[in-house]
Amino acid sequence: MALITLRRNLCHLSDFRIHGALAALKNHPVNHVHKIAEERLSPWFCPLPSEPVRVRFHHACGQKFHSENGNDLLHPAGEPVLPPAHDWDRPELNPSRVDEQTFYERLNHLTSSEEVLSFVSTLQALPDTLAAGALQRICDMERKDGDQKLPKEILKNSVFQALCVQLEQESSSLPDTVLVTALQALTLLHADPQSSLLLNLVAECQRRLQRGGLEVHSLCILGESLIKLQGPGCATLELIICQLQGEKLEEFTPEDIVTLYRILQACTVKVDQHQAFLNRINTFSLSVVYSLSPTLMSQMLSALVVLDQTQALPLFIKLGKSVVKHIPHFTNEELRKVLEAFIYFGHNDRFFTKALEQHVASACLTLGPDVVSKVMEYCSRKRILSKPILDAVAETFICQSEKFSPHQISELIEPFGKLNYLPPNASTLFRKLENMLLTHFHYFPPKTLLKILHSCSLIECHPVNFMAKIFSPHFLQKLQGEELYLDRLSLAQLTQLFLTSVLECPFYKGQKLLSKYQVRSFLTPCCSLETPVDFQLFRSVKTGLIDLLGARLYFASKVLTPYCYTIDVEIKLDEEGLVLPSAVHEDVHKRVALCIDDPKRFSLNSKHLLGKEAIKQRHLRLLGYQVVQIPYYEIEVLKSRGELVEYLQRKLFPQSTGVCW
Predict the structure, then answer these.
(1) Residue 578 phi, psi dihedral angles, 5° rounding
(2) Across 517-625, where does the E strand assignment appear?
(3) Nearest-5° angle of CA 15, CA 21, CA 22?
């Protein structure tokens, strides 16, 4: 195995043929050493200071550089310093006898790149595997706070430069694992793809790939590194995928399987070409689910979404069960990806929801706005009325409203309207929302603003102070934008808001919505503000009504009212309470509207009506209808046709003993 000798590595350059670090450092000032390193690594490193600094070699059980004034060049003022040299005097920590296990134990206890480089500088000779490990550790620590480049202080560090120079010169003799690990670390640190160092490492990797023989793990690392350097369209990547297809999946570690998913995720344009391979991976991955860490689970779920693997539902369900116990351990970004997968696959798991409730309720104030809005989107899409989640999110918005973007505010507020739920602090919540909208009205995209205000009206938090603005021609023009016509959903929301202003806010005397912006029906195939009646449930009720009323002509179905709502069943009564034929339009004293509510009109697994159904029934009552609700859970318990007739009679005519028509 090749050895990287840090006190001699700079002497391996063409300008340094003197054997031994001591001779080299005695005969060359350090600024000259840096100059040679920069020339070899340019343009990867930033220029170094030009003023000459004399150094001498100091030995105290380990090698250290010191400047003439006694200050350690690797530790500028204010930077953390490792323990003094005598701490290394113990045999197990003596740098001249450090083994791989001791090295990595020490490396994992270091907390900054400066400490890693200072630790490495105490070692006389370093195997190439450990050198690559040190570089990888620097990469891990510098990426903790996000995807960012290395600080200039690290780039200028002579030990870091020495590591990179040695990797460039010794690339042909490096083991496969060390070679691809070094390439991966430099890639993650945003090294210049055109630098001589990376060009040399990539060329060597390509030579070995062409020869064949790279192990699965090395192929996975190389593939992901090339995607970052050259993009998913590079020709070499296809060769890597081809070689991976020829390998037995049983030889892949769980980490390799997830890396393979990430590689294919980057090549979505060729997903059809790789689908057969993906099917094999999806099937095999069932066996490794319980071996995955939270990070790997979230990455696998994200890949299934991006690759549109809806046929891999068994794998998703198994992952969904496994993530339950890991919810408290996900980072914000990982939890967001998990929620996206649950939304995409349309899956709901009560154990997942319960764990999510506990996590959000206890840690909501520490969750990022993107995660909070994604949690609300999940609840909204699946119609999950989770009071712990909604209450915690309401409190979060009250305390941290300035952190949310207009789009995130919309995703946060809409579920309250859709699920027809007012939290205990509703007055504070909507006062906060109103103040934000008044202050930043022009920062909200018109459609986003309309969605927010419409959601508020569903739960009787009427946006009276904004009605004149949204009904104004100026706002409607902005809402339409460059399109020829306003979209159907926006028109329906505007119409329902206008109807709300008339029925529920009679004191409002401001701008009215022009008739050309009003729809005739809220029930449309693409974007409905009503839920169509369930056919099977309607047929059962229809049979009972015929038996009760005596004939089909005494009731009408799917009746469109002049007020845009569609009534499931309408029955007309005269002044004496007699049932009139549905075709009769005269002498109608009362209209009875039957709302035949199937499970889709309620929150999931509850008897709580959704917001759009609640506002419909509220408006129908205000319009003079006698609203009779026929919920599915009352119909399901009836055991006979006779019981159904008796049930309908009690519902329709609670104060009479019989029916007259």
Answers:
(1) -80, 145
(2) 556-560, 566-573, 579-580, 590-597
(3) 115
Q: Is the pLDDT of residue 1 over 70?
A: no
pLDDT for 659: 53
Q: Is residue 456 part of a domain?
A: no
Q: Rounded CA gap, 130 and 99, in Å?
A: 10
Find the helix packing angle between 488-503 and 611-622, rounded to 10°: 40
Q: Cβ–Cβ contacts within 10 Å for residue 5, how many?
A: 18
Domain extent at residue 179: 100-247
Q: What's the N-to-C CA distance of the chain in angstroms? A: 100
Burial of 556 (0-12, 13-18, 19+ CB in 10 A): middle
pLDDT tens per residue across span 388-419:
999 999 999 999 999 999 999 999 999 999 99
In sequence order, the 6+-apart residues with CB closer than 8 A to the CB of 238 are: none
Sign for the CA dihedral angle at 473, 479, 482, 487 comes to negative
What H or E segment, with its residue span, contains residue 630? strand 626-631
* pLDDT more than 70, % of the chain: 83
Beta-bridge partner residues of 570 = 556, 593
pLDDT: which is higher, 658 or 547: 547
One DSSP character per residue, 404-446 reads --HHHHHHHHHHHHHTT---TTHHHHHHHHHHHHHHSGGGS-H
Strand 626-631 with 566-573, pairing:
unpaired
- What is the spatial distance between Cα 334 and Cα 659, in angstroms, rounded to a whole number? 61
Tokens of 111: 């907390």
Q: Answer whether residue 658 is part of any domain.
A: no
25 vs 33: CA distance, rounded Å: 9
Query: Is residue 556 classed as helix, strand or coil in its secondary structure?
Result: strand
Domain final residue, candidates 247, 278, 295: 247
Distances (CA, A) of 306 to 45, 102, 237, 238, 540: 36, 41, 19, 19, 43
For helices 332-345 and 313-323, give the axis angle rounded to 10 degrees.
140
**Cβ(138)–Cβ(185) under 8 Å?**
yes
Q: How many domains does the chain have?
A: 2
Q: Is the pLDDT of residue 96 over 60?
A: no
Q: For residues 574 and 587, what is the distance between their CA atoms, to the nearest angstrom?
A: 6
The string of pLDDT tens digits covering residues 35-90 is 444 444 444 443 333 333 322 223 333 333 333 333 332 334 344 444 443 343 44
Residues 6+ apart with CB under 8 A from 154: 113, 114, 117, 138, 142, 160
- Is residue 131 pLDDT above 80, yes or no? no
Q: Which residues pair with 609 in a beta bridge?
A: 602
Domain end (from 247, 264, 280): 247
Residue 161 lies in a domain: yes
Give percent helix, percent strand, percent coil of the chain, each to the nearest 5. Answer: 60, 5, 35
| Cα→Cα distances 258→222, 293, 347, 462, Å | 14, 11, 22, 49
pLDDT digits (tens, 9 = 90+) for 202-228: 998 999 999 888 999 999 999 999 999
The pTM of this model reads 0.78
| For range 449-475, the mean pLDDT | 95
pLDDT score at 161: 80
- DSSP-derived letter for residue 526 is S
Residue 71 lies in a domain: no
| Helical spans, DSSP H, in 98-253 | 100-109, 113-121, 128-142, 152-155, 158-169, 176-188, 196-211, 216-230, 235-245
Six-digit token string for 204: 């060597």
